[in-house]
Amino acid sequence: MKPDTKFLQRIKAIQESTNLELQKLSLPEEPRYLYDPVRYVLKGKGKRLRPILVHLTCDAFGVDEGDKMTTALAVELLHNFTLIHDDIMDQDDYRHGQKTVHKKWDESTAILSGDGVYIISQFLIAKVKTNPVEAINAFNKATLTVCEGQAYDKIYEENQQVTLDEYLLMVEKKTGVLLGVCAELGGILSNQTPEVRQRLKSYGINLGKAFQIQDDMLEIFSDPKTMGKSLGSDLTAGKQTALTILAREKYPEGWDILRNKLSEKTTEEAIPAFRKWLETHKIVSTVERLIATFVDAARKELNVVPKDKRYLLEHYTEMVLNRKK
Amino acid sequence: MKPDTKFLQRIKAIQESTNLELQKLSLPEEPRYLYDPVRYVLKGKGKRLRPILVHLTCDAFGVDEGDKMTTALAVELLHNFTLIHDDIMDQDDYRHGQKTVHKKWDESTAILSGDGVYIISQFLIAKVKTNPVEAINAFNKATLTVCEGQAYDKIYEENQQVTLDEYLLMVEKKTGVLLGVCAELGGILSNQTPEVRQRLKSYGINLGKAFQIQDDMLEIFSDPKTMGKSLGSDLTAGKQTALTILAREKYPEGWDILRNKLSEKTTEEAIPAFRKWLETHKIVSTVERLIATFVDAARKELNVVPKDKRYLLEHYTEMVLNRKK
User: Fold this and answer.
1) Is B315 on the interface with A (CB under 8 A)?
2) Are residues A122 and B108, on separate chains, in Cβ contact within 8 Å?
3) What does the domain layout of chain A look like in residue ranges?
C-alpha cells in the first residue's frame, strides 16, 4: 500500500495541530523550576504517533472534536512523562534531538517535572464528555502497565537468560499498551461495545509490538550514519533485543564466540560482522516473520472499524512500520 | 480541649482500618522491581493524618462508606507518592523509621515505584460513586499544587533572600493543600455546595500551614533525643524555616553574627544557644502568634460543618497541633 497524498496531508495536519495545542496549554509561569522543563519537553520534536492514532480512531468512529483533541494531547503528555522518567533511569542524554531534562537541568528537576507532565495529562483526560470515568481508568491502567514494562526492562537489561516470550511481554507492556489505549480510547469516546474497544486495543498492542521489534532491527540494519556509537559494545556486552535473544536461544555457543571475537572491535567494524552472522544464521528472517505475525494480528482487528473509514488506520499501520530510524 | 476517650478510640480505629485496607490492596506480584517497593512503602508507619481527615469530614456529612474508605486510601497513596519522590530529591535516608526506597533499592526503583503509587491512587479515587470527575479533578489539582510546593522548596533551600510570605506560600502548597483536599473531598462526596467545599478546603489549608510552621518550632524546641544530628549545622548553614526567616528579616546583623558564632559548635552546643536567642528576640512568640492566626482561620471554617458533628473536626484540629515530633 502506497501512502496517498490525502493521507499524508492529514497526518501533517494532525501533527501541526497537536504541536500548536501543546504550545497553547495554559501552564502557570511560576514556579519555573517545575514549569520551564514541562514547556521545554512539550516543544520537543516528537513524531506524535500516539496522538495521530487517537485522531484516526476517533475520526473512524465519529468522536466529538473536543474529546478527540483533549485525548490526543493527554496521551502525548503521558508518553512524555514516561520518557522523562525513563531517560533518568536509563541515563540517556538526548531525546528528539535535544538534551534530556535531567541533563539540561538535574535529576530532581526531571523527577518533579515528569510528575507534573503526568498530572497535567490527568486533567486533560478528565475533560472528556463521553464516558469520562471509563476513559480515565483505561488511561491509568495503560500508564501502570507502561511502568510494569519499564520495570521488566530494568530487570532484563542485565539478564542473559531472558527468553523471547519474556522479552515480548516486556515490549507489549512498555510499547504496545500505550498504542493500544490510543485506539481503545477512540472506542470508549464513541461508546462502542466492550468487544469493539477490546479489538481496537488489541490492534494497537500488536502494532506496538511489531513497531518495537522492528526498532530492534533498524538499530542494527539502518544507515550507519544514524547508528549509536556504542552499538557495537552494547551488542558484545549482551544487549537484549529480539535479534540477540533469538541468536542466543538458537545458537548459544556460536553467538558467544561471535560476541567475544568482536568485543575488541569498534562499532564500524563490529556491526557489519554482526549483520552478516545474523543473516546467514537466519535470525533476521525469523525476526521478520515475527514482526509479520504481529502486523497480521493488528490488521485483522481493523475489521471492527467501519469499512469506509478503515483506510485511515490501514495507512497508519503502514506509516508506523515503514518509518526510517 | 482535652481529647476524649471516644475520639481517641475513633482515631485508632481509623488508623487500624486504613493500615489493614492498605495491606489488602490487590497489587500484582510481578514485576517485583515495581511492586515490592510499593508494598514496602504501604507497610510504613505513617500517622495516617490525611486518611483520618477524610474519614472525619465524610462522617460529618454522611458520605457513603465505600466512597469514604476508597478516598482515604487514595490520599494516603498520593501522600506516599510525594514522599518517595521528595526523599530522592532531598536525599533523605529514613522515613517513618525505615530506609527510604532510593536508599533500600536505588533511585531508578524509587522513581518508578513512586510513579506506581500515584497511578494506583488514581484508580482508587476514580472508584467513587458520587461526583467522580469532580473528585478526580480536586485530587489532581491538589497533586499538582504539592509539586509546585516542592519546586518552591527546592528553589528556596539555597536562597537566603526568601521572605516570610514566599515561605508561607510554599508551605501552603506543599503541606496545606493536601490536608485541604482531604476535607474538600468530604464535601464533594456528600454533594455540598461550592461554598461549603471551599470552606472545608480552607480549613485543611490553614490547619496544614499551622501544622508545618509548628513543625519548624518542634524541630528546634523538641526533646533533644529526637533531634536530627545535623540540625545545628543546618541552622548555621542557613536552613529556611518560619523561625529563621523571621530572625533574618527582623535582625539581619544579629542573626548573621549568631550563626557565625555557632558554626563551629556541635548540635548539642548550638541548639540551646539558638533557642535562647530566638526566645529573647521574641521570634518564638511571633511564630506562635502566626500559628495561632492559621489555627483560628481553620477553626472558623468549621462553622459549615453540622453542629452536632463538629466536635470530630475540632478534636482533630487539636490532635494535629498537639502532636509531639
Assistant:
1) no
2) no
3) 5-209+298-322
Element (H, E) at B293: helix B283-301
> What DSSP string describes B166-184?
HHHHHHIIIIIHHHHHHHH
Chain B nearest-CA residue for A83: B112
Confidence (pLDDT) at A225: 66
DSSP secondary structure code for residue A151 in this structure: H
Of the two residues B232 and B143, the one the predictor is more confident about is: B143
Banded pLDDT at B269 (limits 50, 70, 90): confident
Q: What is the CATH number of domain B5-212+295-322?
A: 1.10.600.10
Measure CB to CB from residue A31 to each of B114, B132, B155 and give the nearest one. Answer: B155
If you average pLDDT over every residue of chain A, what do you get?
A: 93
Q: Which residues of B touch A155 (CB under 8 A)?
A: 31, 33
For domain A5-209+298-322, say whether CATH 1.10.600.10 is its number: yes
Least confident of A45-49, A192-196, B31-35, B195-199: A45-49
pTM for the predicted model, two decimal places: 0.95
Return the C-alpha cell found at B243: 523561625
Contact B119 A85 (CB under 8 A): no
Between chains, do B107 and A123 touch, taking CB under 8 Å as contact?
no
Q: Which amino acid is at B40?
A: Y
**Minimum distance, in Å, between the CA of residue B142 and any CA atom of chain A:** 10
DSSP state of B224: G
Query: Do the Cβ atoms of B31 and A152 come within 8 Å?
Result: yes
In the numeric block, the cell 554482526 is attached to A274
Which residue from A316, A319, A314, A318 is spatially nearest to A302, judged by alpha carbons?
A: A314
- Tell me how far apart the alpha carbons of residues B71 and B247 are, in angstroms, rounded to a whole number: 40
